[in-house]
Amino acid sequence: MVRGVKNITANINAANWSNAIELFNGTTLESLITERYKYDIGIYSYISSLNARCYTPSIAQSQIPKIYPEDSYYQRWEKKQEVLQEAVDLQIFYGNMATENGLNLGIVKLPYYGGIHTENLLIELITNQNEGLAIDSNSIVKARCLTQLHNNDSINILGMAEYQLDTVPQTPTLTQPENFGVTIGNTPT
Fold it and tell me: Among 38, 57, 59, 129, which residue has the fewest nearby CB atoms (within 10 Å)?
């Protein structure tokens, strides 16, 4: 068994805002095992944190919503929606290597409050503060900005993924032995 943590880092700016930026690639985890042909490998990966640090002065400044600790998730969401009219839309999706687009996990609105702002993407996508995002071994998590960014704008995505590779040695396949002869010094053996 191999366990580890992989950092997630990506930068979205005016040059790459419309591109699908890879955040986590589950298909590369199997390459951590040397002599893979000897093992049956099971892969488990889990994105436990995913945050966006945003600085987008090109959009209108948003008002800070009046959210209280006793507000439910839906009350917080409703209050945020009231002030997010001019926010940047960040799409998070996952798929496989063959597709540029994949299953849409959600679109997170990133406001501009007049400075650098950090948004927890998992809370916005999953709606439960106690969960992360489990990813299978053939999937890739990507992000794309749906709102055009300008020169000074930047969105830095930071996170952490935990993974576990379970290895079980393959049972060797035995074949019927083949008879063969070797000649040693003119005497067949």
Answer: 129
- Structure tokens belonging to residue 41: 């490998």
The listed range with the strongest mean pLDDT (22-31, 98-107, 177-186) is 22-31
Instruction: Please name every residue paired with 13 in a beta bridge, in sequence order, or none if there are none.
Output: 154
Q: What is the pLDDT of residues 48-67, one digit of tens each?
A: 899 999 999 998 888 888 89
SS3 16: coil
Per the listing, tokens 């999953």 go with: 126
Query: Do the beta carbons of residue 172 and residue 61 sit within 8 Å?
Result: no
Give the C-alpha separation, 109 to 90, whole Å: 6
Q: H or E element: which one contains 77?
A: helix 73-83
Distance (Å, rounded) from C-alpha 30 to C-alpha 43? 8
Contact 68, 80 (CB under 8 A): no
- Report how far apart, in Å, the C-alpha atoms of 105 and of each of 121, 123, 127, 140, 149 are: 11, 12, 12, 12, 22
- How many whole angstroms separate alpha carbon 86 and alpha carbon 144? 17
Tokens (6 digits) for 9 = 């880092």
Structure tokens at 111: 């406001």
Q: Within its chain, how far is the Cα of 176 from the centroid?
A: 47
Q: Within its chain, how far is the Cα of 22 from the centroid?
A: 7
Euclidean distance between CA atoms 28 and 146, whole angstroms: 27
Select the more confidently predicted residue: 81 or 151: 151
